[in-house]
Write a structure and sequence with these properties.
InterPro entries: A-crystallin/Hsp20_dom, HSP20-like_chaperone, Small_HSP. Belongs to the small heat shock protein (HSP20) family. This is SHSP domain-containing protein. Keywords: Stress response. The protein is mainly beta. The protein is 6% helix and 30% strand. It has one helix and seven strands. The strands form two sheets. It has a four-stranded antiparallel β-sheet, with no helix packed on it. A three-stranded antiparallel β-sheet has the order 3-4-5.
Amino acid sequence: MALTPFFGGNGRNSILDPFDLAFWDPVDSWPSSFFGRNLGRDVQAVVSTRIDWVETPEAHVFKADLPGLQKEDVKVTLEGDRTLQISGERTREEEKKTDTWHRVERSHGKFLRRFRLPENANVEAVNAKVDKGVLTVTVPKTKKTEPEVRVVNIA
């Protein structure tokens, strides 16, 4: 028995290609609606928002890839005493009646990520900026205070 390549119309050439979604797209097989929304696309938007968290000696730094978004599309908030929340929305391109879409892979929809900050985070001095599609949130660390040591006289 021989395996023969499949020449489909989606630009890929093999049925054995593990990245080919022509036959089965796991996100498309999820329930089509969940409380009136497209659950698969919403989950994909949240999952595709990649965020790095690095701790330096001076601060906790969060970097999120948000290509195509402006700073007005993103919201950074602190909830409670130490929960950092990054949220926003990617809007879908306007479809024109004359256009023929062959593939829609870029995610759209709302995204939300939460991070519990450690006790050494100075939540009063959080700084955020967007540069070239990358959101950088810097949370400085509080200064470590050494406990005061007192000598107690023995009577």
